[in-house]
Amino acid sequence: QVQVVEFGGGLVQAGGSLRLSCAVARSILIISTMSWYRQAPGKQRELVANVTAGGTTNYADSVKGRFTISRDNAKNTMHLQMFSLTPEDTAVYYCNTRGVLVEPFDYWGQGTQVTVSP
Q: Dihedral angle at the C-alpha atoms of 103, 109, 22, 88, nearest 10 degrees?
């Protein structure tokens, strides 16, 4: 079992910013697609952004231009920098790591709460 640890959530006012971080073992990080998902109350979990092992990024339309995903292989971490937050961004944010190492793997963090007040 691979440990996936998120940190950096919290409460922020609309228009503010937060940075989420996700730590995984380096041997996993460097070969995986790292993703952030979020789940708001009463809604399905949705992909926010991801970054492949090669550095290609992908964003949900709702966060394009406001969020930036990045990976720091040297520090075994992946980040989600969030700007111009709105109450609609309020959700539990989950880190996911997915790839193949001998066989496919797919691990999730425990989630971190992001709350944006009006």
A: 120
